[in-house]
Design goal:
Helix 2 links the parallel strand 1 and strand 2. The N and C termini lie far apart (about 70 Å). The chain is about 25% helix and about 35% strand. The longest helix has 22 residues.
């Protein structure tokens, strides 16, 4: 009797397991030997992939950023190498959720572009040409980045990530963990990341943990808006333990002298009918630079920053942040040695953040920018620099960079080590 009961139990269990196997979604891992290593093979596998598939990839050189790869299904791209990243040179992707929500993940992939980003941006200074981003999000898209690097991309806006709402009322979500955004450049706004949502709707969200934004820049063209690392409009950002170092929102184009290029000197008598003269970079010298937010420029957005370090960023307005009708909650972080042409604004913002005025106390910031803050900044500056240096040591920053941020000598910094 007992053996019969056990047999019936096992038979029933097998039937249940088979049923679960039939209904459970499969997640195929498609890979060439050693990982997908050509653009043609990658495009073909994306075309034939099913939702939930994982594509193991190797290093790939893409033909042109002007011919983006479209992804309209839920796929994970993962480096086939367990420790080392797959390096994609000149990659450009469009994540298209127009026909329905998709979830796309990139894991341990380095997106890079050849050349000096600032020099390439200068070449497109007065051009209306559209330069594609490394990744464009449209429609209903949930994108996840893990251990990815974006380096030396150039675009008109959002060199690495461009997420802009469309007329469908789409929901765009972007998350990044352990990612680096290095040396990217744009002509208009958002050196690394551009987020533009629909006013009055919470349809764009960006969360980042343990990410580094370093050396990104936006130009100071007359039509530029700023945001050396990030430009956000009608968006919600939650940034945890992220660093923003040496980003720039007012990159100055310096045209070569006519003698150096072999070009003829400009005619000082040229009138406005001379379109070439009107559009040339040399003619931009008579406008007022209002680009802002060396690290982040935000309009009608909310920012929660916890444990973030914001140092050595620069802009015409707001060396660290430029906020318009936005809320910033800044907790447990460092804001130091950022530079703005409007120094009173910058000093007021930094001091306000250090005292916890940011976020819900935005009114206090606005009223305090013009008065009394210089004295507050000077008080206890030595102790503040020591506190910043100690924290940066714990986070693993190089001694040379800590010295730039704090004005402490290298010997003074080394003496702080436990």
């Amino acid at each position: 009797m007992r053996s019969c009961s056990i047999q019936k139990f096992l038979t029933g269990l097998c039937a249940v397991l088979m049923a679960l196997c039939l209904v459970a979604p499969s997640s195929a891992v498609a890979a060439a030997p050693g990982g997908i290593n050509t653009e043609a093979a990658l495009r073909k596998l994306i075309e034939n992939a099913k939702d939930g598939d994982v594509l193991l990839v190797d290093n790939i050189t893409f033909a042109s950023v002007s011919d983006p790869v479209t992804v309209d299904k839920s796929i994970t791209f993962r480096s086939y190498k367990e420790q080392d990243p797959a390096v994609w040179n000149g990659a450009s992707f469009v994540l298209d959720g127009s026909a329905g929500k998709i979830s796309v993940a990139f894991e341990n992939i380095t997106f890079c572009s050849d050349g000096d980003a600032a020099a390439i941006m200068d070449a497109f200074w007065d051009s209306s040409s559209r330069l594609p981003s490394a990744m464009t999000m449209q429609g209903n898209v949930d994108a996840q980045l893990s251990s990815c690097v974006f380096r030396n991309y150039v675009s008109d806006e959002g060199a690495n990530i461009r997420a802009v709402y469309d007329d469908t009322g789409a929901q765009l979500s972007l998350s990044a963990k352990n990612c680096s955004f290095l040396g990217n450049a744009v002509c208009l706004r958002g050196g690394a990341v551009l987020l533009v949502g629909s006013e009055g709707l919470s349809n764009i969200r960006f969360t980042a943990q343990d990410c580094a934004f370093t050396g990104n820049m936006s130009s100071n063209r007359p039509d530029a808006l700023g945001g050396g690392a990030i430009y956000a409009e009608n968006a919600a950002l939650e940034l945890t333990r992220c660093s923003f170092v040496s980003n720039e929102a007012s990159h100055q184009y310096l045209p070569a002298e006519p003698e150096e290029t072999g070009a003829e000197a400009a005619d000082p008598e040229a009138g406005p009918e001379d379109e070439t003269a009107a559009q040339s970079p040399e003619s931009f010298s008579d406008y007022t630079d209002t680009t802002g937010g060396g690290a982040i420029c935000a309009v009608r957005s909310s920012l929660l920053m916890n444990g973030c370090d914001v140092c050595l960023n620069s802009a015409s307005l707001g060396g660290a942040f430029a906020l318009t009708n936005s809320r910033l909650d800044f907790l447990n972080g460092i804001v130091a040695r950022n530079h703005a042409e409007s120094s009173v604004l910058q000093e007021g913002l930094e001091e306000g953040i250090q005292k916890g005025w940011a976020g819900g106390r935005a009114e206090g910031l606005e009223e305090g920018w013009a008065g009394g803050l210089e004295e507050g900044i000077q008080k206890g500056s030595d102790n503040r620099n020591i506190e910043i240096a100690t924290r940066m040591l714990k986070l693993g920053y190089p001694v040379e960079q800590i010295s730039l941020c704090t004005d402490l000598t290298e010997d003074e910094i080394l003496a702080l080590k436990p």
